[in-house]
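FORM 12-B: Structure-to-Sequence Request
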């Protein structure tokens, strides 16, 4: 089964009102996106669709856990990923999907939230993945890292443009 099938919401048949959906994010989900550099994320996205006569609103609530090697000690670390997103939906002639506003053309009958969920997870990823407390890091590993040479490459900042300018000065 296509893991992304669960991320489609057929809205045409839904009555006006609030509808709730629960969607699972796991490595299988991220594998569907070839440009993904995430895989060890497990969790759920709660999707609330508020349907009115002429507009709709999507609210996404991400509740997941990232499992990854710690950037400091390389031991596995688990970090919570929590985020929300809100998308307004209007109807028009042509389908135009922006980050926060989706215009749905007349042929549309379902909402595909897979990309929105994928982006929400990526926006939530921390820039550094480390144990929150340094004491939690594997110290043996940290010491080993400290002993290793800091900079393998001795190349100094060398900008050929500066060299050229110096040449002009002389
Ligand atoms: Zn660590």
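FORM 12-B RESPONSE
SEQUENCE OUT:
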């Amino acid at each position: 089964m296509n893991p992304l099938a669960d991320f489609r919401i057929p809205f045409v048949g839904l009555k006006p009102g609030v509808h709730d959906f629960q969607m699972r994010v796991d490595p299988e989900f991220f594998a569907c996106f070839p440009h993904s550099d995430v895989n060890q994320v497990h969790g759920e996205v709660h999707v609330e669709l508020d349907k009115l006569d002429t507009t709709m609103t999507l609210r996404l609530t991400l509740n997941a856990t990232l499992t990854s090697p710690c950037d400091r000690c390389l031991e596995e670390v688990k970090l919570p990923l929590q985020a929300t997103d809100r998308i307004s939906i209007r109807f028009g002639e042509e389908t135009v999907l922006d980050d926060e506003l989706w215009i749905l053309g007349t042929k549309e009958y379902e909402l595909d939230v897979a990309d929105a969920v994928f982006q929400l997870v990526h926006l939530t990823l921390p820039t550094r993945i480390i144990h929150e407390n340094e004491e939690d890091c594997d110290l043996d590993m940290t010491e080993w890292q400290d002993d290793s040479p800091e900079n393998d490459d001795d190349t100094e900042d060398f900008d050929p443009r500066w060299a050229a300018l110096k040449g002009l000065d002389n």
